[in-house]
Amino acid sequence: NKLGFVLGTCTAPAANTPMFAQWDRCDKMVISWLLHNVEKTISDSILFSSSSRQIWTDLQQRFGQSDGTRFFQVKRELYSISQGNQDIATYFTHIKKLWDEHNSMMTIPTCTCGIECACYKFVHKWIEKEQLIQLLVGLNDVYKTVRGNILMSRPFPSVSEAYYMLLQEEHQREMSSSSQFSH
Fold first, then answer.
1. Position 71 pLDDT exceeds 60
2. Between 20 and 30 A from 24 (CA), which of 38, 73, 81, 108?
3. How distant, in Å, are the alpha carbons of 8, 147, 148, 151, 157 from that of 144?
4. How far is CA 25 from the centre of its chain?
């Protein structure tokens, strides 16, 4: 119930009312949360703000807009990401972080008709397909068989299903290599 403090919907009552002390205590608690959840250099710059709303507004103005340079960097990383010497879980975590950051900078239209219309479903299917292809493109060649199986699937599996298939393949490879060394 503290989101209203940063969004400005839970406004301060008059200073001379009994509710003001309670509101002020809650606002100071939210300020404390904000200060302790940002880097020290940032917290130093917001330390003397008078309310959690003021802190939030300041942080939004500084960090809330999509930075064109960062957007470019994320796109570049997504276009060039590869598994390299990472295991599947580490590779997936890295690419998932990039997808999440990319999506946070994108303005994807939402359906306002109250039901999931065809356009809404199409956009989300398209994003899922793009992410699946990005995941597969960056895989090492040792996964070419499972990659081929995923690409031949109709319909395409979800990213989560493909990830699970890749993990299974990785576990099979690990079991095969460990059994060769035990003989």
1. yes
2. 38
3. 53, 5, 6, 10, 16
4. 32
- How many Cα atoms occupy the beta-carbon half-sphere of 136 within 13 Å? 23
| Separation of alpha carbons 174 and 168, rounded Å | 10
For Cα atoms 75, 104, 137, give the angle at the middle one, nearest 5 degrees: 35
Separation between Cα atoms, residue 71 and residue 53, nearest integer Å: 27
Average pLDDT, the chain: 88
Looking at residue 115, its pLDDT comes to 65
Query: For residue range 86-126, what is the model confidence (pLDDT) as tens digits?
Result: 999 999 999 999 999 888 887 766 666 766 677 778 888 89
**Which position has the token pair 């406004």?**
11
DSSP secondary structure letters along 30-73: HHHHHHHTS-HHHHHHHTT-SSHHHHHHHHHHHHSSPPHHHHHH
Model-wide pTM > 0.85? no
Average pLDDT over every residue of 12-34? 92
Q: Is 158 helix (H, G, I), strand (E, B) or coil?
A: coil
Q: Residue 183 pLDDT more than 60? A: no
Q: Report the C-alpha gap between 136 and 132 in whole angstroms.
A: 6
Number of residues assigned to the chain: 183
CB 170 within 8 Å of CB 87: yes
DSSP character for 13? P
